[in-house]
Fold these 2 entries.
Entry 1:
Amino acid sequence: MKNSILRGVTLVWVLLAFASVAAPAYAAEFRAGAFAQPITPTKFPAPVNGNMKGAFAKDVHDPMHARCLALFDGKTELVFCIVDACLIPRDICERTKQIASEKTGIPAAHILISATHTHSAAAMTPAFQSDPDPEYVAALPERIAQGIVQAHANLEPAEIGWGLGKDPTQLFNRRWFVKEGETYENPFGSKADRARMNPGYQNPAVTKSIGPVDPTVAVLAVRSSTDKRPLAFFANYGLHYVGGYPAISADYFAAFAEEIGARLKAGDARYKNKPPFLGAMTNGTSGDVNNVNFAGPAPGPRQAGEQILVVAKSVAEAAMKAYDQIQFRPHVTLDALAADIELAVRKASPEELKRAREVLETTPKDNDGQYSNQSAIYAREAVLLDAYPDRVPVKLQALRIGDLSIAAIPCEVFVDIGFDLKKRTPFRQHFTVSLANGYNGYLPTTEHHHYGGYETWRARSSYLEVDAAAKITTHLAGMLAELQKRAGQ
């Protein structure tokens, strides 16, 4: 009797051991959920940033959203939250993640929050002479978190796929070399800059664009595994913004999403009782890129928003070509890493700070209480930046979806940096999301810092140390390598 009991116990242990080896560590069903959370302000006029002078929107052309996509592989959940905003500060991102994590159990490190960089959205952080509405800002974390919670609640069996398209027609590097023998004076009184941003159409004082553009249109799509209806379509493109509406607007980013939804027939009556389709465009490495061809003649007059629709349709065409080649997968594994690195802040020297205060004392403001003189604007920035700590945390994030990697950087990232990360990733495909998880200004390469120009001028919009790009890229490369190592375990 005793031996039979021992044999039975042994058999149970063998079966349990076999089960632990043979059974997957988590459920194989892949799930996805999406939701567009409204975040349009209700109080007007609403502060809008994106220019050196603070502006105010009096009404709404098209609404602002936080476009949320949740992905779950049975063990790990990732969330993308793309916010219709020019800039989204770190404190809003951190608080939003905390709220969403408490309500869903999703680790904060697995949530990516980024701004599209529309220049016609309600301000969320101070920038130059624009300050946000404190009441609007205070309410944002809870509102955005609601979108993440709802996307999580909408999880359903899904298939996922990704691919790459190209649209070089809408991208132009906006930094130009100043012609030998020509100069211009920057806001600090120097004429040493060799780069000039947005020099004007066919300006004879410049020669050629300094850097490249990245024409890639990266596409990430999910659809229901039961009825094959489209759930979400996320894209990534290296275009700063387009602009054109004098009211609150999500710019071409939202127009692209609407165009994609129409092309996928996502509004079909068959889906009326299902969660609505979600389209979104993330901002790629666009810190030195815009939609203006300064090599050609000035275009004729356009109606408000006309160019937004032109760009949206063009990029959607490229995105759909990539989509048509996607082979949807019933399951992929997910992973994410997030880390803070500390970088130095470029501040004015005591002599430069003294000069800045003198400029402010001697420069009159306009009738609106703001400066239009660039020297005064940057003098004000020098004083405000002096209150910053000497070193600041910069949030970096790396995500993996199968053999696709994604890097997220809280800056307006230059194209060369994105190309560098594509070379250094150990995964088959890669793209980079700019303006993610906070805002730490422009991120030029060390070489571009030596050329000078607007994107390098010291201000709250450009303040990280000269070698910041190299340090960020190296750290992200290490994070991507760690994701590869974890994937092989």
Entry 2:
Amino acid sequence: MPITSVTSDTDALTLTAIGEYPVAVQRLWEAWADPRQLERFWGPPQWPATFTRHDLKAGGRSEYHMSGPKGERVSGYWDVDFVQAPRLIELRDGFLGPDGHPDPTQPETRMQLSFEVTTTGSRFVAVSTFASLEAMQQLLAMGMFEGLQAALAQMDDVLADLRDHSETLSASTEIVDDTHVVVRREVRGSLPQVWRAHHEAALLQRWLLGPDGWTMPVCEVAQAIGDSYRYEWQNDSDGGRFGFTGELLESEPPRRAVTTERMIGIDGPGTVNELILSPRPGGRTLIEVRITYPTKELRDMILATGMVDGMEVSYARLQAELLD
């Protein structure tokens, strides 16, 4: 069953959403605990969400933004107060301003998410409590009621989707649209280990090599926002070389980094790459690379080179390094 009800109560200052699904309560919990699944239903269809941070633990913080159809962007946060997996989450939900701090002009609400076993599967109950009637009216006027209905209605597809990337150990590709591609790969290793492997030259030179027969003689890593990086590879058999250079735009260790990328010696615009690392159960880490291309033609040309196959060879080498 999909969302069974979304109701508001101005006397109690609450907005309550209830959904029932033919899945185990652990599976329902994972939809909220995994940021890649969560972002598929937290934003309404026309305002998809992107979680850049998701610390589902007491004292943790999650941060996300929703992108509108005309390029609008609204950012929000969850400050987590209590977690009892897989049954209960208590948090404070609010808006972030352009400076990345809570927006004092927008109300903060308290939300309690409870997960229950039913005779047909499981149920979640999400109760948002407002600080005042004025705060409730302000958020409802912004479309919170309709937005929540539309967003949570997407959970059916998420829970029914058998393509669970968290269960695969090979690189997978999602073509989002004409200029956006996402590559995902899960590895056995902690979040700090995987971050370090992406940001220490000596480690990068051992695993970021693509197919066998290549070395990485040049590995200059950007250390701070605004720094440039330069990576060059050389073929052992014929000495052929190629490389990439770019700039570090954003960095949030040990979870997220955004860089530009351009092939050395090739004119024209390059790509913007967003690296997102997410902890997974069992000491694993999900690596996600979100690539923005300037054109569909460049996207198709790059994918046709076997880029993802080369990335998988590198990730398999990284996995061996982490287990060594």
